[in-house]
């Protein structure tokens, strides 16, 4: 086993950090390949909770090299604060590598993100306002600032000036905001540059050399399939490619180097922000799920929208990402329900659909068709083998496996690192 990708199969927040952490002690590199500090992972180790926003979860394993790939956009202040916060808790962060080609989130990206979202009003996307989307837009428009640019003053000032010609016209004339100067952007970036320079690396070469040497590289996705800019519920998506294919473009490793693709699915469904969610529970049941699962964003703190497990959502992700395994998380949250519904189809204007609708219009009008499974009341948090789970819990897992079409190899039964049932080895 050499290249392994972990990808979310729903709308993010599936618990990818827990799955990555499970494997982290057995791999040599963990690579974050997409997104910015609009995403996050929560990992619980030895009763200690760690909220990670830019660093991959492998940072918690001292023998694993954490890598930030070229597909990530980086807020340098957030990254340095995260490293300092971990160091204060005794977690080493001196092995972090950052791609020289990764793009930087600047002050003007953050300002534009916030004012644009307010300007959209009811048509807002639900962005976190952290400048991630505008940074990706500049990347595609070929006017972005990369990590390597921080170390050439002439190039950096030229790029900032060129960007601000456009940004200031927008801020001043459209949004009635004050202009931003080249010096204030430059000075902020230079505050962090000395700390970043030792971490800068040719990540593609490092990772390919590692794979050539037979070392194991784990690619950790942020967000999830249904937030992908191409395959997600557009336009309510992120600005990058969190799908498995994005691991290749976001790190510089070719697809033939990938041996296993593990999809992370929560035992129910959640979503943060705007956008369609056919199975959303807008009643006391949804609120009960939110409380039971502590469903609030790691990065934003926003309450997550909740619903039962949607097999159509996960099955589509399984196909597009060519999943080899599914890791099911937070199964313990469902303990205590008399019946546990599962979305097995959609009804769209009287027509049953057994797969995700092709169009945005159809998805907007979709209502869930449920299958009801018998629940369980037993505490499953101490289960460590599949046989330890109650019969009804086993039946629920097996039914999800049938509906998704991919074997469920791991099951999270609590937030702790040790609270995991392994059905099949993931390495």
What report would you give on this structure?
The chain is of the alpha/beta class and 427 residues long. It folds into three domains: 3-98 and 199-262, Adenylosuccinate Synthetase, Chain A, domain 1 (3-Layer(aba) Sandwich), CATH 3.40.440; 103-196, Adenylosuccinate Synthetase, subunit A, domain 2; 265-422, Alpha-Beta Complex (Adenylosuccinate Synthetase, Chain A, domain 3). Helix content is 32%, strand content 21%. It has helices spanning 16-24, 76-88, 107-120, 132-140, 153-173, 182-196, 203-212, 244-249, 284-293, 311-320, 360-364, 391-404, and strands at residues 3-8, 29-32, 41-45, 48-52, 65-68, 73-74, 97-99, 103-104, 200-201, 217-220, 258-266, 269-271, 305-307, 309-310, 325-329, 339-348, 351-353, 366-374, 408-412, 420-422. A ten-stranded mixed beta sheet has the order 9-7-5-2-10-1-11-15-19-20, sandwiched between helices. Strands 14, 16, 17 and 18 form a four-stranded mixed beta sheet that branches. A two-stranded antiparallel ribbon has the order 3-4.
């Amino acid at each position: 086993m050499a290249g392994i990708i972990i990808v979310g199969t729903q709308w993010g927040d599936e618990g990818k950090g827990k799955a990555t952490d499970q494997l982290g002690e057995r791999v040599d590199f963990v690579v974050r390949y997409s997104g910015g500090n609009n995403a996050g992972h929560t990992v619980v180790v030895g009763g200690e909770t760690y909220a990670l926003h830019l660093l991959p979860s492998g940072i918690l394993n001292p023998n694993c090299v954490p890598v930030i790939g070229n597909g990530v956009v980086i807020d340098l202040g957030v990254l340095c604060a995260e490293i300092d916060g971990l160091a204060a808790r005794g977690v080493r962060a001196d092995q972090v590598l950052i791609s020289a080609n990764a793009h930087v989130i600047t002050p003007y990206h953050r300002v534009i993100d916030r004012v644009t979202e307010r300007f959209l009003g009811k048509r807002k996307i639900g962005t976190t306002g952290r400048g991630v989307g505008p940074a990706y837009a500049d990347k595609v428009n070929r006017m972005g600032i990369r990590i390597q640019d921080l170390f050439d003053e002439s190039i950096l000032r030229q790029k900032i000036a060129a960007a601000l010609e456009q940004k200031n016209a927008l801020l001043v004339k459209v949004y009635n905001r004050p202009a931003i100067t080249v010096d204030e952007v430059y000075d902020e970036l230079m505050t962090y540059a000395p700390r970043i320079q030792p971490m800068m690396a040719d990540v593609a070469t490092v990772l390919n050399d590692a794979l050539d040497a037979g070392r194991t590289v784990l690619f950790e996705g942020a967000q999830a399939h249904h937030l992908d800019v191409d395959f997600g519920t557009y336009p309510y998506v992120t600005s990058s490619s969190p799908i498995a294919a994005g691991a290749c473009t976001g790190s510089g490793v070719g697809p033939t180097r990938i041996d296993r693709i593990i999809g992370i699915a929560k035992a129910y469904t959640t979503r943060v922000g705007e956008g369609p969610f056919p199975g959303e529970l807008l009643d006391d049941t949804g609120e009960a799920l939110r409380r039971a699962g502590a469903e609030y964003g790691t990065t934003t703190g926003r309450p997550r929208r909740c619903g039962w497990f949607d097999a159509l959502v996960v099955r589509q992700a399984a196909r597009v990402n060519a999943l080899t395994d599914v890791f099911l998380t937070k199964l313990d949250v469902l303990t205590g329900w008399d019946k546990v519904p599962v979305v097995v189809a959609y009804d769209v204007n009287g027509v049953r659909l057994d797969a995700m609708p092709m169009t945005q219009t159809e998805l907007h009008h979709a209502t869930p068709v449920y299958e009801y499974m018998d629940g369980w009341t037993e505490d499953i948090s101490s289960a460590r083998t599949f046989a330890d789970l109650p019969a009804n819990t086993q039946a629920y897992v097996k039914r999800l496996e049938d509906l998704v079409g991919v074997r469920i190899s791991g099951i999270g039964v609590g937030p702790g690192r040790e609270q995991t049932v392994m059905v099949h080895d993931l390495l």
